[in-house]
DNA sequence: TGTTAGCACTCTTTTCATTCGAGTGCTAAT
DNA sequence: ATTAGCACTCGAATGAAAAGAGTGCTAACA
């Protein structure tokens, strides 16, 4: 068990290191108001804390900095739950006072605003695409020659695609087609749309419309929508300001990793709801081994639909990051709920 | 006037420097096959070329590298018009063999593909927003409570916005509203939409619909669309691989500049059609003073609607960049034309 | 017995001088 | 007109020395 004095010293070291990114020496700790002991005493305590694995040195005569175990302990037991400033709360609430339009815009905006507020990177993962289903199909004629196909999913995602109406197709053909589509495709997960079209709809269209190949071709073109983006990353540039990224090679690795949805998404697919902190090598991906990730799930009603996360150096302001993330995901969930309730 | 030998040496230096990013010494030039003179001779010629302003040294005993004037001369008179590889041409043509859907997607994809092909940054500027006009308004009911407003512009941009139907509004109110909107707002530039709604439409709605304030509120919410994005930037990460960006501060400046549409857009609003090259300080913006920008306009039919550009270090492969850009903008124009002709 | 002052020791960072090498510019020879 | 030769310049790399921050240990103190 750690003594109160050790706890205090550990806390001071973490707080100070988060602030300065420099190893902390005993003299500097002794200068702090809350600390009433001499540098020598602190050195002894620090030696003990190091032996216990909470602190580490960069070299034999350097000051101490927290180890991953130190951060973990800090996060679990020492961290002051941070009050956000009124300005920050205001800013967040202001964003959510507007009506939510589409989940995707909310995700994108969230990523942008949070990374600006925290100065870390923000990752926002949306609902499992595999579970997103088609809710409605509409075709809106623009003029004689062209029309827009509109697809709405159960997450509120709206996809539109303009296309040229094949010659020989008339209004009633279009209407019939739309009816068939709605009948057969509503409720089908987006990822199965193309298979479903081939399997079920193809035959029906042949049966009901006057010009089969035209209509079918049109269909394929209009309905093969790109799957909605599922991951938003924002604030990469912020990392350039972090001293741990003064090395261009590190930046390259991080940036290129962030381009690849396949690599990031699994990190965020957290199984349990709530807020979770992954410090350094607690992240299984090597490129993130000197970063920390804080994730928080958000919901629509009861359904946990996605994750919003902050990524920063292990030396990050955990209290602030957690506070921000929790407030944000709460507001976001509320806001999504009220929007979905109305629909 | 430069002698043939000077031209040859200048060309070799530019080509070599583009390749290696290192100042070139006389010995290395002499080693080139095409060059049949001794290092001493070359040194004399280089001294002359330097005096004329085509070459420069990094310090008094370094090799030579091209000055901006040198690049300018190279680009105007020496550059071999590069043949793209079959692979590259194939890749470009393949992209344009698909049907174009929306200008914005074309822009976005163009930025991505070109920056991958060239390893430089790509900027794509779309049509003047001020000139983009509303072409059609549609409202598609989703269910009892909500609907989607769809706005189509004359550039093919489709904007959708879901909204909640105010209680008390019935189907016929909606229809009337849409009719009024189409009558009054079609042809209005997007940037004037809100003013126009306030000025013209407000009164009419009051007159025709049973519940004025509801309908008007709905309208404001649904029609205050974000203006379509006009600028796409891609390939920022490529710059990390350029040796001229081994300094983090430079990267920060460049990246933060690229976040600001207001700063970049003016660069691309070129008045004359065709391809233009701006080398180093020929760019009026200071942050781009050691970069080069190559712009190329693209058209829809006769109308020059936008600009596509590559941004790289002054030491860039101008021949390849120009070739890529020209092929791309040509294909893009053709492709857009055929799409618009069909509409 | 817990705390602290004092001091030798360690390791990094900074500075300065030296050396090394690539490359020039000039001169003299071809 | 060209080129070989050589002194000279400057940056980059190397290394030694000094400065500075901080530790660990010992001995003294309350």
From TrEMBL, chains A, B:
Residues 104-322 form the Heat-inducible transcription repressor HrcA C-terminal domain. One of its GO terms (biological process) is negative regulation of DNA-templated transcription. Keywords: Repressor, Stress response, Transcription, Transcription regulation. The keyword Transcription applies. InterPro entries: GAF-like_dom_sf (IPR029016), HrcA (IPR002571), HrcA_C (IPR021153), WH-like_DNA-bd_sf (IPR036388), WH_DNA-bd_sf (IPR036390), WHTH_transcript_rep_HrcA_IDD (IPR023120). GO terms for molecular function: DNA binding. Negative regulator of class I heat shock genes (grpE-dnaK-dnaJ and groELS operons). Prevents heat-shock induction of these operons. Belongs to the HrcA family. This is Heat-inducible transcription repressor HrcA. It comes from Allobacillus saliphilus. The gene is hrcA.
């Amino acid at each position: 068990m750690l003594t109160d004095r050790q706890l205090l010293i550990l806390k001071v070291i973490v707080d100070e290191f988060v602030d300065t990114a420099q190893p902390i020496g005993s003299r500097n700790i002794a200068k702090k108001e809350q600390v009433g002991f001499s540098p020598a005493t602190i050195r002894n305590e620090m030696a003990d804390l190091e032996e216990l694995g909470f602190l580490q040195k960069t070299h034999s005569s350097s000051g101490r900095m927290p180890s991953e175990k130190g951060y973990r302990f800090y996060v679990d037991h020492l961290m002051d739950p941070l009050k956000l400033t009124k300005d920050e709360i205001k800013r967040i609430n202001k964003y959510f006072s507007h009506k939510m339009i589409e989940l995707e815009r909310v995700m994108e905006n969230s990523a942008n605003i949070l990374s600006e507020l925290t100065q870390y990177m923000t990752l926002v993962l949306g609902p499992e695409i595999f579970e997103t289903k088609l809710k409605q199909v509409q075709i809106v004629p623009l003029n004689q020659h062209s029309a827009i196909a509109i697809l709405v999913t159960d997450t509120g995602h709206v996809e539109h695609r303009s296309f040229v109406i094949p010659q020989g197709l008339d209004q009633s053909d279009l209407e019939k087609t739309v009816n068939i589509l709605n009948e057969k495709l509503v409720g089908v997960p987006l990822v199965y749309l193309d298979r479903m079209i081939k399997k079920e709809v193809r035959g029906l269209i042949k049966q009901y419309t006057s010009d089969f190949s035209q209509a079918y071709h049109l269909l394929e073109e209009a309905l093969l929508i790109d799957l909605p983006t599922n991951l938003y990353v924002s604030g990469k540039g912020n990392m350039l300001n972090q001293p741990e990224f003064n090395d261009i090679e590190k930046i390259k690795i991080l940036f290129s990793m962030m381009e690849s949805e396949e690599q990031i998404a699994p990190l965020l697919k957290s199984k349990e709801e709530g807020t979770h902190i992954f410090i350094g090598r607690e992240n299984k991906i090597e490129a993130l081994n000197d970063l920390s990730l804080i994730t928080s799930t958000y919901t629509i009603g009861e359904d946990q639909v996605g994750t919003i996360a902050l990524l920063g150096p292990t030396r990050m302001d955990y209290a602030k990051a957690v506070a921000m993330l929790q407030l944000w995901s709460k507001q976001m969930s509320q806001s999504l709920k009220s929007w979905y309730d109305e629909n």
